[in-house]
Amino acid sequence: MALLVRRVRKAVAKAAAPAPAPLKQRGAELAIPAHFRCPISLDLMRDPVTAPTGITYDREGIEAWLDTGRAVCPVTHAPLRQEDLVPNHAIRRVIQDWCVANRSRGVERIPTPKIPVTPVQASELLFEVAESARRDGGAARCAGAAARVRELARDSERNRRCFVSVGTGRVLATAFESLATAGATAVLEEVLAALVCMMPLDEEATKVLASPSSLGSLVAIAKYGSLAGRLNAVLVIKEVVSRDGALVDLGAKVDEVVDALVRIIKAPICPQATKAAMVATYHLANSDERVAAMVASAELVPALVEALVDADKSASEKALAVLDAVLASEEGRASARDHVLVMPVLVKKMFRVSDVATELAVSAMWRLGCKGSDDEEGVATGCLVEALRVGAFQKLLLLLQVGCRDATKEKATELLKMLNKHKGLGECVDAVDFRGLNRLS
């Protein structure tokens, strides 16, 4: 009788236990053993670590849990820190053996995880970077140490956070400044690549990078470096110019920086570089009307308008932001009014991309429709007539009906008043053939 009771209890417990998650491979379902699964993600553990409470988790899952500020074990709720986690090599080897045994069923063997970097190891590498950068003939050694920092930081987010915590950004920025005078482009590009892994950079690091020697090297790499080097240079320039007071630190180098950014936008090397250059250009043009005029003089406005025709959401928002900032200058407005696509594109982007893009498009239209001086009156009127022709009046009315921010509402209302004065001169066109207009430009 007692044996029967035990068998019944065992059967009930087995039925109540959660079923292991199936692993779908090559049309078949393979059950993952429960002790191979992370209690947080319920997925197969790739880098199992054990907490002092005795519970084993996948490193990625438990570190993500602790990063949210919950410094407790998810299962037992006992206090837990990242430093308390110990790699469980035994269970990892068993999982790897299980993967190998089920290779015929499509299971791939999990790779052996690399040992995370410790603060002491990170500090030693940084010491080598700093010492090599200061020493004559140490450029090659500095490049090697910087490359090692980059490789380790890219291995895992944990490694990257470890390097950031010991001030890697400041050390690399200082090394870049020290090596800038030597003009060794390959070495500087290695340091840049490591710097990008530490982004966002702190204020001290960006101030060092804003020095004349550092900026000169950043501009040179952005213009003439390798493709990867040009991308990294633009990303770092964006970091430098995005902080408050950056324009003051740039000083006489601002024209060189603008020239390098405009080159990247007009002759793209990759979408990431183009978007980063747009963000940097926006910060510069938005901070000073003289810089906005400088950007317009570099003939960026036509390139922005052309890019907006088939840009994605992110690129559209950034291009519209740059265009709106440049139109604050008389040179920017003159350049835009000379382009036959500018009003059709701005009107077309309303309600098609995002609320941010709509507000930026309205602001740009408002700048084009307003006369900054008596000399602009005639061309401003021409822009308003073109806006009427492509349906701006109806879209602005719709914008006021659906609602928008107060600043945008004021500009839309003012635009409607200006358009109403010229309503008899423009005929609304529901559809705009961009390709046909492009041939006319």
List the helices and strands and how they pair.
Elements: H1 2-16, E1 22-25, E2 28-31, E3 48-50, E4 56-58, H2 59-67, E5 86-87, H3 89-101, H4 119-134, H5 139-155, H6 157-165, H7 168-180, H8 185-197, H9 203-209, H10 212-224, H11 227-242, H12 246-250, H13 254-266, H14 271-287, H15 289-297, H16 300-308, H17 313-326, H18 330-337, H19 342-349, H20 355-369, H21 377-389, H22 392-402, H23 406-421, H24 434-440
Antiparallel strand pairs: 1-2, 3-4, 3-5
Helix pairs in contact: 4-5, 4-7, 5-6, 5-8, 7-8, 7-9, 7-10, 8-11, 10-11, 10-13, 11-14, 13-14, 14-15, 14-17, 15-18, 16-17, 17-20, 19-20, 20-23, 22-23
Describe this structure in words.
By secondary structure, the protein is mainly alpha-helical. The protein has helices spanning 2-16, 59-67, 89-101, 119-134, 139-155, 157-165, 168-180, 185-197, 203-209, 212-224, 227-242, 246-250, 254-266, 271-287, 289-297, 300-308, 313-326, 330-337, 342-349, 355-369, 377-389, 392-402, 406-421, 434-440, and strands spanning 22-25, 28-31, 48-50, 56-58, 86-87. A three-stranded antiparallel β-sheet has the order 4-3-5. A two-stranded antiparallel ribbon has the order 1-2.
